[in-house]
Give the backbone structure.
Amino acid sequence: MEKVKVGIVGIGWWSDVLAGIIESSDKLDLRACYTRSKDKATAFATKFKCEAMESYESLLALGDLDGVILTTPNSAHRAGAEAAARSGKHVFVEKPISNTLEDGRAMIGVCETAGVQLAVGHSYRRHGALRHLR
């Protein structure tokens, strides 16, 4: 099975956690990263052996990239997800999906129209109903 090639947008402590998980995965391949701070992007790219991109647009223009992981502020999720979807990239965002219901619905609509998957990083493993099932 070919690995899913992804890029991470927004570099911070959580992106380091996710990149570490990606490194140990036999299903994902971290290809690129972008953040507004060139120094942070370069350090992250060196640490995780991926390409630091000059802009979000240049990351989305990578032809072999399958998806984008947005570890950006919640207020930036909609714009980032819509741009990725319009570029044909699958989207993973951290919870919450957005700050408003309107933005969340818009993100879902754009991803559906583009034919890409939208996933939200939210775990239910501690949810009472699931604990009861165990």
Remarks:
- Residues 62 and 69 are 14 Å apart (CA to CA).
- The chain has a mean pLDDT of 94.
